[in-house]
Amino acid sequence: MAVVGANIFRGGWFAVRIDDDFERPADGEFYPDAFSLMDAWGSAARILFGTPIGLPDAEQPIRLVDQAARHRLKPLRHSSVFPVPSRAAIEAFRSGEAESYRALSDLNHRELGKRLSRQSAALVPMIAELDQLMLDNAVAREKIREAHRELCFWGLNGRRPMEHAKARPEGIAERLRVLSEYLPWAPAFCSDVSRESRRPIPVEVVVDSLATALTAVSSHPSLSGLQSLPTEPQRDARGLRMEMVYRVPRAAADALGA
User: Fold this and answer.
1) Is the peptide bond before 230 cis (omega within 30 degrees of 0)?
2) Helix or strand (DSSP H, E) at 30
3) Cβ atoms of residues 121 and 105 within 8 Å
4) What is the mean pLDDT of residues 212-232?
5) Which residues, 6+ apart, have CB-to-CB distance to 251 below 8 Å?
6) For residue 85, what are the contacts with CB-CB under 8 A and spacing of at least 6?
7) Which of 124, 151, 182, 256 is the most exposed place for a label (fewest CB within 10 A)?
8) What's the rounded Cα separation, in Å, for the pair 114 and 92?
9) For residue 29, what are the β-bridge partners?
10) What is the dihedral of CA 166, 11, 7, 39, to 10 degrees?
């Protein structure tokens, strides 16, 4: 069965689907919301979103997964892991009770003791949307898990973070080299999708989503099984896992007995 990796792009989601036969190029599509993505590709065996799932609150103000991910991505890519808004802020946004940056930041401060960054606040609509899908849809809860793009590359690169930012040409080249180790067709696919999509998609978005989809693949001869950070995830107040999943080269996993 197919697997899917999706990341936020311009108020929607750019998703890549890889069939079990990963020897052939994948499909890439833009979806305006997570619900339409689920309608179109919900038959996939696994769907990974590069968006926080499982929200902090006053009882659990810290997502341990975020701390662990930043630690692994230091000293170069750790800043890509943004603080996650509180459940109070997300639910207030969804109900229409708080929509401005100040209102959301004030709610977050009351719940977690810290204000929202502008970067985190910009993610609120997408986090709220995915959270609603997870709460409403039992199938989504079974299939969907969180996977941060830089942690995906960290794992695929043998537990080493990327040296260059993806906004730079050398950053794209570095990431394509990693993907090519597992998917020889990756560079051509990323170039073609970025150039030929009905909606122009930056190549870095395609690269991120392909790495997320590769992480979702059920089996690959060169990759370990799916691993979770932390190994035993927290659960938020609504029962959703607070984790990020990743894979590492099989040789590295065997050496560590993982």
Assistant:
1) yes
2) strand 27-31
3) yes
4) 95
5) none
6) 55, 104, 108, 116, 120, 121, 123, 124, 127
7) 256
8) 17
9) 15
10) -160
Token pair of 204 as six digits: 């870095």
Average pLDDT, integer, range 226-254: 93
79-125 per-position pLDDT tens digit: 999 999 999 999 999 999 999 999 999 999 999 999 999 999 999 99
Instruction: Categorize the per-residue pLDDT at 258 as very low, low, confident or very high, splitting at 50, 70 and 90.
Output: low
Cα separation of 71 and 185, whole Å?
32
Residues in the chain: 258
Side-chain half-sphere exposure of 213, counting CA atoms within 13 A: 32
Q: What average pLDDT does the structure give for the chain?
A: 94
What is the number of alpha carbons within 13 Å of residue 34 lying toward its C-beta?
A: 25
H, E, C per residue of 148-189: CHHHHHHHHCCCCCCCCCCCCHHHHHHHHHHHHHHCCCHHHH
